[in-house]
C-alpha cells in the first residue's frame, strides 16, 4: 500500500458548509488529495472567497441545507453540471448554547431539522445515485457531544448523538451496495466560532483545555486528513465507525 491509496484523484466531493472552519479544512485536504470539490453554504461572499483560496478544482453552490425541499434539485444540478458525486461530507450544522430549561420547542426543532433531518435527506438523495453505481463514501461530522454529556448544548448534543443511530442503521442497508458511511467526532478545533464561544467564558475554556490530553486545540486540517482517510481506498473495508479527532479528550481524566 502506497500513498496513492489515499488519493482522491478523479473523485468529486460535495461538502456542505464548506466555506469556513472545519468544512473549509476538509475542502483544502481533499484538494491536496487531487479531488474535485463542490462546497455549499448560505453566504455567497464566503463561498466565493473560499473557492478563490482553494483554486481551480473547487466550485461553490449557494444553498441552505435546512430547506429539505431543494435537496433533490441540488443533487441533480451538481451531477448534471460537474459529474457524479463520489463523496458526501455532511458538515453543515447549527449550534445552540442554552440551558435545557431555556431551550424552547422551536429552538430544539430548528437544530434537529438542520443537524439531523437535513443530513438524512441529503444522504438519502446522494446514496440513491451511489447505490446505482455500487460505490460511494459518506462522512458525517459528529461532535464530542455525541460521546459524552455537556451542559448548555442539549439540542445540539442530541442532534449529533442521533447521527450515530442514523449511521448504524444506514450501514445495514448501504453496505451491500458498496456505499460506506462513517463519522468524525471533532474535538475542540481552532476557528472563529470556537473563540467567539470560549473567549467570553474563561471557566468553560479552562475546563475544556484541562480535559484535552494533548493540552491544546486541534486544527481544521486534522479533521481534513481524517476525512481523506475515510473517503479514500485506504479505508475501503471500514464502515459504521465514529473516529474521535480530539487530542484524547474523550478518554482523558
Automatic annotation (TrEMBL):
GO terms for molecular function: glucose 1-dehydrogenase [NAD(P)+] activity. SUPFAM superfamilies: NAD(P)-binding Rossmann-fold domains (SSF51735). Pfam families: adh_short_C2. Its EC number is 1.1.1.47. Keywords: Oxidoreductase. Belongs to the short-chain dehydrogenases/reductases (SDR) family. NCBIfam families: PRK07231.1. This is Glucose 1-dehydrogenase.
Amino acid at each position: 500500500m502506497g500513498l496513492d491509496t489515499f488519493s482522491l484523484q478523479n473523485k468529486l466531493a460535495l461538502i456542505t458548509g464548506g466555506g469556513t472552519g472545519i468544512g473549509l479544512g476538509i475542502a483544502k485536504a481533499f484538494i491536496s488529495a487531487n479531488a474535485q470539490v463542490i462546497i455549499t453554504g448560505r453566504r455567497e461572499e464566503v463561498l466565493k472567497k473560499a473557492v478563490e483560496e482553494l483554486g481551480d478544482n473547487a466550485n461553490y453552490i449557494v444553498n441552505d441545507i435546512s430547506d429539505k425541499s431543494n435537496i433533490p434539485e441540488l443533487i441533480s444540478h451538481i451531477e448534471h453540471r460537474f459529474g457524479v458525486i463520489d463523496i458526501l461530507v455532511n458538515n453543515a450544522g447549527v449550534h445552540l448554547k442554552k440551558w435545557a430549561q431555556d431551550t424552547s420547542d422551536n429552538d430544539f426543532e430548528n437544530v434537529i431539522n438542520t443537524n439531523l433531518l437535513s443530513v438524512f435527506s441529503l444522504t438519502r438523495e446522494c446514496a440513491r445515485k451511489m447505490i446505482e453505481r455500487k460505490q460511494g463514501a459518506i462522512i458525517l461530522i459528529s461532535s464530542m457531544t455525541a460521546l459524552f454529556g455537556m451542559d448548555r448544548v442539549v439540542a445540539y448534543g442530541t442532534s449529533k448523538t442521533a447521527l450515530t443511530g442514523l449511521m448504524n442503521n444506514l450501514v445495514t442497508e448501504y453496505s451491500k451496495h458498496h456505499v460506506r458511511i462513517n463519522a468524525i467526532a471533532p474535538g475542540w478545533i481552532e476557528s472563529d466560532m470556537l473563540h467567539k464561544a470560549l473567549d467570553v467564558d474563561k471557566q468553560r475554556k479552562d475546563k475544556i483545555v484541562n480535559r484535552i490530553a494533548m493540552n491544546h486545540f486541534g486544527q481544521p486540517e486534522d479533521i481534513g486528513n481524517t476525512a481523506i482517510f475515510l473517503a479514500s481506498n485506504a479505508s475501503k473495508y471500514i464502515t459504521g465507525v465514529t473516529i474521535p479527532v480530539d487530542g484524547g479528550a474523550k478518554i482523558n481524566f
